[in-house]
Amino acid sequence: MEDAKLMNRVGPFILLALLCAPAAAPAQSFPARPVTLIVTAAAGGVTDVVARAVGQRLSERWGQQVVIENRGGAGHILGAQAVARAAPDGHTLMVAEAATYVINPNVLPREKLGYDVERDLVHITGLVRIHHAIVTTPSLPVSSLGELIALAKEKPGTVTYGTAGVGSGPHLNVVRLEHATGARFVAVHYRGATPALTDVIGGHTDMMLISVGSVLGQRQTGQVKMLAIGSERRLPSLPDVPSAGETVPGYTAGTWFGLSAPAATPPEIVMKINSEVREIMTEPAIREQFVDRQLYEPMTSSPEEFTRFIRNEIQRWGAVIREQHLQIAH
Fold first, then answer.
1. pLDDT tens-digit profile of 191-232?
2. Is the bond leading into 31 cis (omega within 30 degrees of zero)?
3. pTM (predicted TM-score)
4. Dihedral (C-alpha) 316, 320, 323, 325: value to the nearest 10 degrees?
5. Residue 12 pLDDT exceeds 80
Protein backbone atom coordinates (compact mmCIF):
# COMPACT_ATOMS: atom_id res chain seq x y z
CA MET A 1 0.00 0.00 0.00
CA GLU A 2 2.73 2.41 0.96
CA ASP A 3 4.65 1.43 -2.13
CA ALA A 4 1.61 2.21 -4.27
CA LYS A 5 1.22 5.62 -2.66
CA LEU A 6 4.90 6.33 -3.13
CA MET A 7 4.66 5.45 -6.83
CA ASN A 8 1.62 7.70 -7.20
CA ARG A 9 3.62 10.58 -5.75
CA VAL A 10 6.90 10.07 -7.61
CA GLY A 11 5.55 8.44 -10.77
CA PRO A 12 4.83 11.73 -12.61
CA PHE A 13 8.33 13.00 -11.84
CA ILE A 14 9.90 9.80 -13.17
CA LEU A 15 7.80 10.09 -16.32
CA LEU A 16 8.83 13.72 -16.73
CA ALA A 17 12.47 12.79 -16.36
CA LEU A 18 12.13 10.06 -18.96
CA LEU A 19 10.46 12.45 -21.38
CA CYS A 20 13.18 15.05 -20.92
CA ALA A 21 16.07 12.61 -21.13
CA PRO A 22 16.00 12.07 -24.92
CA ALA A 23 16.19 15.83 -25.54
CA ALA A 24 19.18 16.31 -23.27
CA ALA A 25 21.11 13.21 -24.31
CA PRO A 26 22.25 14.32 -27.79
CA ALA A 27 23.89 17.52 -26.48
CA GLN A 28 25.47 15.74 -23.50
CA SER A 29 27.09 13.09 -25.68
CA PHE A 30 28.05 15.45 -28.52
CA PRO A 31 30.53 15.22 -30.10
CA ALA A 32 30.89 11.44 -29.93
CA ARG A 33 33.50 11.30 -32.69
CA PRO A 34 35.56 13.66 -34.89
CA VAL A 35 33.63 16.57 -36.39
CA THR A 36 34.08 17.55 -40.05
CA LEU A 37 33.96 21.22 -40.99
CA ILE A 38 33.28 21.37 -44.73
CA VAL A 39 34.64 24.60 -46.23
CA THR A 40 32.97 25.62 -49.48
CA ALA A 41 36.20 27.14 -50.86
CA ALA A 42 39.80 26.20 -51.45
CA ALA A 43 42.42 26.26 -48.70
CA GLY A 44 44.04 29.56 -47.81
CA GLY A 45 41.14 31.97 -48.34
CA VAL A 46 39.11 33.70 -45.64
CA THR A 47 36.50 30.93 -45.51
CA ASP A 48 39.28 28.43 -44.84
CA VAL A 49 41.14 30.65 -42.38
CA VAL A 50 37.98 31.28 -40.35
CA ALA A 51 37.08 27.58 -40.31
CA ARG A 52 40.55 26.54 -39.15
CA ALA A 53 40.68 29.12 -36.35
CA VAL A 54 37.24 28.18 -35.03
CA GLY A 55 37.82 24.47 -35.62
CA GLN A 56 41.05 24.42 -33.64
CA ARG A 57 39.42 26.00 -30.61
CA LEU A 58 36.38 23.71 -30.83
CA SER A 59 38.70 20.71 -30.94
CA GLU A 60 40.49 21.91 -27.81
CA ARG A 61 37.21 22.51 -25.98
CA TRP A 62 35.59 19.22 -27.01
CA GLY A 63 38.58 16.93 -26.82
CA GLN A 64 37.65 15.66 -30.28
CA GLN A 65 39.40 16.18 -33.59
CA VAL A 66 37.80 18.78 -35.88
CA VAL A 67 38.71 17.96 -39.48
CA ILE A 68 38.75 20.71 -42.10
CA GLU A 69 37.61 19.46 -45.50
CA ASN A 70 37.90 21.91 -48.40
CA ARG A 71 35.30 21.42 -51.14
CA GLY A 72 35.74 24.40 -53.41
CA GLY A 73 34.47 24.86 -56.92
CA ALA A 74 31.11 25.21 -58.68
CA GLY A 75 30.41 28.54 -56.99
CA HIS A 76 30.51 27.07 -53.47
CA ILE A 77 27.77 24.62 -54.42
CA LEU A 78 29.65 21.33 -53.93
CA GLY A 79 30.39 21.87 -50.25
CA ALA A 80 26.85 23.01 -49.48
CA GLN A 81 25.40 19.97 -51.23
CA ALA A 82 27.61 17.66 -49.18
CA VAL A 83 26.48 19.22 -45.90
CA ALA A 84 22.81 19.24 -46.92
CA ARG A 85 23.02 15.48 -47.55
CA ALA A 86 25.01 14.62 -44.41
CA ALA A 87 23.61 12.93 -41.30
CA PRO A 88 21.90 15.56 -39.09
CA ASP A 89 23.84 14.79 -35.92
CA GLY A 90 26.16 17.78 -35.67
CA HIS A 91 29.25 15.88 -36.80
CA THR A 92 29.23 17.52 -40.24
CA LEU A 93 29.14 21.32 -40.34
CA MET A 94 29.58 23.95 -43.05
CA VAL A 95 31.59 27.17 -43.05
CA ALA A 96 30.61 29.21 -46.10
CA GLU A 97 30.77 32.65 -47.66
CA ALA A 98 27.66 34.77 -48.23
CA ALA A 99 27.24 33.63 -51.85
CA THR A 100 26.43 30.11 -50.67
CA TYR A 101 23.53 31.47 -48.64
CA VAL A 102 22.12 34.38 -50.63
CA ILE A 103 23.51 34.64 -54.17
CA ASN A 104 23.21 31.07 -55.42
CA PRO A 105 19.51 30.77 -54.42
CA ASN A 106 18.83 33.96 -56.40
CA VAL A 107 20.51 32.88 -59.63
CA LEU A 108 19.98 29.10 -59.78
CA PRO A 109 16.84 26.94 -59.66
CA ARG A 110 16.55 24.44 -56.80
CA GLU A 111 17.10 21.42 -59.05
CA LYS A 112 20.40 22.80 -60.36
CA LEU A 113 21.55 24.18 -57.02
CA GLY A 114 21.10 20.85 -55.29
CA TYR A 115 20.30 22.32 -51.87
CA ASP A 116 17.71 24.60 -50.33
CA VAL A 117 19.08 27.17 -47.91
CA GLU A 118 16.00 27.03 -45.69
CA ARG A 119 14.84 23.43 -45.97
CA ASP A 120 18.16 21.54 -46.16
CA LEU A 121 20.27 23.53 -43.69
CA VAL A 122 19.93 24.82 -40.14
CA HIS A 123 21.89 28.00 -39.50
CA ILE A 124 23.96 28.16 -36.33
CA THR A 125 25.62 31.59 -36.32
CA GLY A 126 27.34 34.18 -38.43
CA LEU A 127 31.11 34.30 -37.98
CA VAL A 128 32.79 37.41 -39.42
CA ARG A 129 32.34 40.24 -41.92
CA ILE A 130 35.18 41.57 -44.05
CA HIS A 131 36.00 44.53 -46.30
CA HIS A 132 37.44 43.86 -49.73
CA ALA A 133 40.59 45.52 -51.01
CA ILE A 134 40.89 46.25 -54.71
CA VAL A 135 44.37 45.05 -55.66
CA THR A 136 46.25 44.76 -58.94
CA THR A 137 49.36 43.10 -60.23
CA PRO A 138 52.34 45.51 -59.91
CA SER A 139 52.84 45.71 -63.68
CA LEU A 140 49.34 47.01 -64.43
CA PRO A 141 49.81 50.69 -65.44
CA VAL A 142 47.41 52.20 -62.89
CA SER A 143 47.93 53.74 -59.47
CA SER A 144 44.36 54.48 -58.37
CA LEU A 145 40.86 53.09 -58.67
CA GLY A 146 39.97 55.95 -60.99
CA GLU A 147 42.80 55.00 -63.35
CA LEU A 148 41.76 51.34 -63.22
CA ILE A 149 38.21 52.22 -64.21
CA ALA A 150 39.48 54.50 -66.99
CA LEU A 151 41.72 51.72 -68.36
CA ALA A 152 38.84 49.24 -68.36
CA LYS A 153 36.67 51.75 -70.23
CA GLU A 154 39.40 52.60 -72.71
CA LYS A 155 40.15 48.93 -73.40
CA PRO A 156 36.95 47.07 -72.55
CA GLY A 157 37.28 43.32 -72.14
CA THR A 158 41.05 43.36 -71.65
CA VAL A 159 41.50 43.86 -67.88
CA THR A 160 41.10 40.50 -66.15
CA TYR A 161 40.09 39.87 -62.55
CA GLY A 162 40.28 36.78 -60.37
CA THR A 163 37.39 35.53 -58.26
CA ALA A 164 36.94 33.01 -55.47
CA GLY A 165 34.31 31.26 -57.59
CA VAL A 166 31.23 32.13 -59.61
CA GLY A 167 28.85 34.22 -57.51
CA SER A 168 31.37 34.73 -54.69
CA GLY A 169 31.85 38.13 -53.06
CA PRO A 170 35.02 38.88 -55.08
CA HIS A 171 33.02 38.11 -58.24
CA LEU A 172 29.73 39.84 -57.49
CA ASN A 173 31.34 42.99 -56.14
CA VAL A 174 33.27 43.49 -59.38
CA VAL A 175 30.02 42.98 -61.32
CA ARG A 176 28.49 45.70 -59.14
CA LEU A 177 31.50 47.94 -59.86
CA GLU A 178 30.93 47.44 -63.59
CA HIS A 179 27.29 48.47 -63.29
CA ALA A 180 28.20 51.48 -61.16
CA THR A 181 30.89 52.77 -63.51
CA GLY A 182 30.29 51.40 -67.00
CA ALA A 183 33.71 49.73 -66.97
CA ARG A 184 34.04 46.19 -68.30
CA PHE A 185 36.35 43.55 -66.84
CA VAL A 186 36.93 39.89 -67.71
CA ALA A 187 36.28 37.33 -64.94
CA VAL A 188 38.68 34.46 -64.31
CA HIS A 189 37.11 32.04 -61.84
CA TYR A 190 39.13 30.04 -59.31
CA ARG A 191 38.24 27.56 -56.56
CA GLY A 192 39.10 30.13 -53.89
CA ALA A 193 40.71 33.48 -53.22
CA THR A 194 44.22 32.12 -52.61
CA PRO A 195 44.82 30.66 -56.09
CA ALA A 196 43.31 33.80 -57.58
CA LEU A 197 45.71 35.98 -55.58
CA THR A 198 48.65 33.80 -56.62
CA ASP A 199 47.91 34.59 -60.26
CA VAL A 200 47.53 38.31 -59.56
CA ILE A 201 50.93 38.31 -57.85
CA GLY A 202 52.39 36.36 -60.76
CA GLY A 203 50.94 38.75 -63.32
CA HIS A 204 48.69 36.15 -64.95
CA THR A 205 45.56 38.05 -63.81
CA ASP A 206 45.36 41.82 -63.62
CA MET A 207 43.32 42.44 -60.47
CA MET A 208 40.91 41.10 -57.87
CA LEU A 209 38.87 41.99 -54.81
CA ILE A 210 40.02 40.18 -51.67
CA SER A 211 39.88 40.52 -47.89
CA VAL A 212 42.05 43.41 -46.74
CA GLY A 213 43.70 41.24 -44.10
CA SER A 214 44.67 38.65 -46.70
CA VAL A 215 46.92 41.02 -48.65
CA LEU A 216 48.54 43.26 -46.05
CA GLY A 217 51.82 41.36 -46.29
CA GLN A 218 51.79 41.27 -50.09
CA ARG A 219 51.13 45.00 -50.20
CA GLN A 220 54.06 45.72 -47.88
CA THR A 221 56.43 43.65 -50.01
CA GLY A 222 55.21 45.20 -53.27
CA GLN A 223 53.71 41.99 -54.65
CA VAL A 224 50.39 43.78 -55.25
CA LYS A 225 49.16 47.35 -55.46
CA MET A 226 46.24 48.19 -53.17
CA LEU A 227 44.18 50.84 -54.95
CA ALA A 228 41.19 51.14 -52.60
CA ILE A 229 39.19 49.46 -49.85
CA GLY A 230 35.47 48.78 -50.16
CA SER A 231 34.58 50.28 -46.78
CA GLU A 232 32.36 53.32 -46.29
CA ARG A 233 35.34 55.31 -45.05
CA ARG A 234 39.10 54.86 -44.75
CA LEU A 235 40.24 52.30 -42.22
CA PRO A 236 42.15 53.78 -39.25
CA SER A 237 44.85 51.13 -39.67
CA LEU A 238 45.35 52.04 -43.37
CA PRO A 239 44.79 55.80 -43.56
CA ASP A 240 46.76 56.14 -46.80
CA VAL A 241 44.48 53.78 -48.75
CA PRO A 242 41.33 55.50 -50.12
CA SER A 243 37.88 54.05 -49.68
CA ALA A 244 36.28 52.98 -52.96
CA GLY A 245 33.44 55.40 -52.29
CA GLU A 246 35.82 58.33 -52.72
CA THR A 247 35.98 57.43 -56.42
CA VAL A 248 32.62 55.70 -56.89
CA PRO A 249 30.13 57.38 -54.51
CA GLY A 250 28.01 54.91 -52.56
CA TYR A 251 30.02 51.87 -53.63
CA THR A 252 31.15 49.40 -50.96
CA ALA A 253 32.55 45.90 -51.27
CA GLY A 254 32.81 43.10 -48.75
CA THR A 255 31.22 39.86 -47.67
CA TRP A 256 30.46 37.69 -44.64
CA PHE A 257 30.80 34.08 -43.48
CA GLY A 258 28.56 31.74 -41.52
CA LEU A 259 28.28 28.34 -39.86
CA SER A 260 25.49 25.86 -40.63
CA ALA A 261 24.55 22.19 -40.24
CA PRO A 262 22.22 19.74 -41.99
CA ALA A 263 18.51 20.30 -41.39
CA ALA A 264 16.99 18.25 -38.55
CA THR A 265 20.16 18.52 -36.48
CA PRO A 266 18.84 18.40 -32.87
CA PRO A 267 18.22 21.92 -31.50
CA GLU A 268 20.24 21.10 -28.36
CA ILE A 269 23.32 20.34 -30.49
CA VAL A 270 22.78 23.49 -32.55
CA MET A 271 22.60 25.56 -29.37
CA LYS A 272 25.67 23.87 -27.91
CA ILE A 273 27.73 24.67 -31.00
CA ASN A 274 26.32 28.19 -31.10
CA SER A 275 27.27 28.82 -27.47
CA GLU A 276 30.79 27.43 -27.95
CA VAL A 277 31.46 29.48 -31.09
CA ARG A 278 30.15 32.71 -29.58
CA GLU A 279 32.40 32.23 -26.56
CA ILE A 280 35.39 31.48 -28.81
CA MET A 281 34.89 34.68 -30.79
CA THR A 282 35.06 36.75 -27.59
CA GLU A 283 38.30 35.20 -26.33
CA PRO A 284 41.03 37.87 -26.06
CA ALA A 285 43.56 35.71 -27.90
CA ILE A 286 41.17 35.10 -30.79
CA ARG A 287 40.24 38.78 -30.97
CA GLU A 288 43.86 39.91 -30.94
CA GLN A 289 45.56 37.26 -33.06
CA PHE A 290 42.74 36.45 -35.46
CA VAL A 291 39.92 39.00 -35.67
CA ASP A 292 41.77 42.29 -35.14
CA ARG A 293 44.93 41.26 -36.96
CA GLN A 294 42.97 40.23 -40.05
CA LEU A 295 40.70 43.31 -39.84
CA TYR A 296 37.61 41.11 -39.49
CA GLU A 297 34.36 42.16 -37.79
CA PRO A 298 32.67 39.51 -35.61
CA MET A 299 29.01 38.83 -36.41
CA THR A 300 27.98 36.00 -34.08
CA SER A 301 24.35 35.78 -33.03
CA SER A 302 21.63 33.32 -32.05
CA PRO A 303 20.50 30.77 -34.66
CA GLU A 304 17.17 32.60 -34.97
CA GLU A 305 18.86 35.96 -35.58
CA PHE A 306 21.24 34.48 -38.14
CA THR A 307 18.37 32.76 -39.96
CA ARG A 308 16.44 36.05 -40.15
CA PHE A 309 19.58 37.82 -41.37
CA ILE A 310 19.98 35.27 -44.19
CA ARG A 311 16.34 35.64 -45.24
CA ASN A 312 16.70 39.42 -45.37
CA GLU A 313 19.96 39.15 -47.35
CA ILE A 314 18.31 36.79 -49.87
CA GLN A 315 15.57 39.36 -50.44
CA ARG A 316 17.99 42.29 -50.56
CA TRP A 317 20.38 40.69 -53.04
CA GLY A 318 17.48 39.34 -55.09
CA ALA A 319 16.27 42.91 -55.56
CA VAL A 320 19.78 44.10 -56.50
CA ILE A 321 20.21 41.29 -59.03
CA ARG A 322 16.84 42.00 -60.64
CA GLU A 323 17.13 45.79 -60.64
CA GLN A 324 20.65 45.86 -62.01
CA HIS A 325 20.08 42.89 -64.36
CA LEU A 326 23.20 41.22 -63.02
CA GLN A 327 24.28 38.24 -65.10
CA ILE A 328 26.11 35.56 -63.11
CA ALA A 329 26.68 32.59 -65.37
CA HIS A 330 27.53 29.25 -63.74
1. 888 899 999 999 999 999 999 988 999 999 999 999 999 988
2. yes
3. 0.79
4. -140
5. no
